[in-house]
Amino acid sequence: MKITLTVDDQTIQTQDNSSVLSACHSAGIYIPHLCWLETDAPADAPAACRLCFVEIDGFREPVAACAVTVENGMTVNTGTVAVRSLQKTALKLLLSVHRVDCKPCPANRACQLQNIAKFLGAGLGCKPFERVLKEPEVDVRHPVLDYYPNRCVLCGICVRICRQQHQQTWLSFAGRGFNTVVGYFDADPDAAADCLSCRACLEYCPTGALVQRLADDDR
Predict the structure, then answer these.
(1) CATH class entry, domain 1-132
(2) β partners of residue 4
(3) Does the model's pTM come out above 0.85?
(4) What digits encode the pLDDT tens for the residues 38-62?
(5) Residue 161 CA neighbour count, 13 Å, CB half
């Protein structure tokens, strides 16, 4: 069943049970996001990055577009003052725990944080928030991948993609609060080497937080 809605004065159609974010994405209307996958149903969307806010007529406050199911006749606005303020604040919070050192990063010029900052007309600074970084700079416990916690935005995509690809995951969240990281769930090192043939987590990571270790790297 097709649903018709209006987004930024543009009429679009989408499938019933789609999320607002999915509908906009399919119509070429960009809404900043980091943790959403195209396969996410509204009820399953993590809504963790707090970037995909929109205003919808009938809702008192902006809502996460990934978690709202479309309805026929719905009117959505993606670029209001309130929406942009929330998105810029969410971006600054992410940058406050992010190592902004783009040149050596493998995601440079393909980084979703860079793209979102450009779209919002914001820089990569985090004021008025203080920048606080984690130690160590690189976690090398995984047999074949290096993890950079100060590049990671904790979107959880690597964990979810690993589970989708293998019906299990060798990656998981570890720690709490500020100390939350993506941890290596201890598997057989020989089995974990299959990561190199899969590479899904590397391809989906939006910020270059996961990097394949070079063969001659003896760490």
Answers:
(1) alpha beta
(2) 13
(3) yes
(4) 999 999 999 999 999 999 999 999 9
(5) 18
